[in-house]
Amino acid sequence: MPEMRFHIRWPDGSRDACYSPTLVIKQHLAVGQDYALDEFLALTRLALGSASARVQERYGFPCGRAEAQLARIEETARRQEPGTVHVEAFEE
């Protein structure tokens, strides 16, 4: 399965390179797009959950790295003021 990273800018201006074990994130987020924080969280939960499920279908266990990435995203989001998350780039 092709892994990828998606680069984002948080409402406070900090940047992150986030991991996905599959390219499914491209079905949920778009480069150059701004997402309200709550919308971004919902979309990444859906995308990374789907990616982890694909890994489970193929290998028999969920993707721990996707689950850990989602936990990091949720933790960072809790520290943010309301605002938008900007998707800067996809890196395959």
Give a quick precis of the structure:
The chain has helices spanning 37-59, 64-78, and strands spanning 4-9, 15-20, 34-36, 84-91. It is an alpha+beta fold and 92 residues long.
Straight-line N-to-C gap: 11 Å
Order of helices and strands: EEEHHE
Report the structural category.
alpha+beta
How would you sum up the major sheet? 4 strands, antiparallel
Number of strands: 4
* 3D shape: globular
**Overall pLDDT, averaged?**
96
Topology readout:
Elements: E1 4-9, E2 15-20, E3 34-36, H1 37-59, H2 64-78, E4 84-91
Helix pairs in contact: 1-2
Description:
The structure is a single chain. With 92 residues, the protein is of the alpha+beta class. It has helices at 37-59, 64-78; strands at 4-9, 15-20, 34-36, 84-91. The longest helix is centred in the middle third of the chain and has 23 residues, at 37-59.
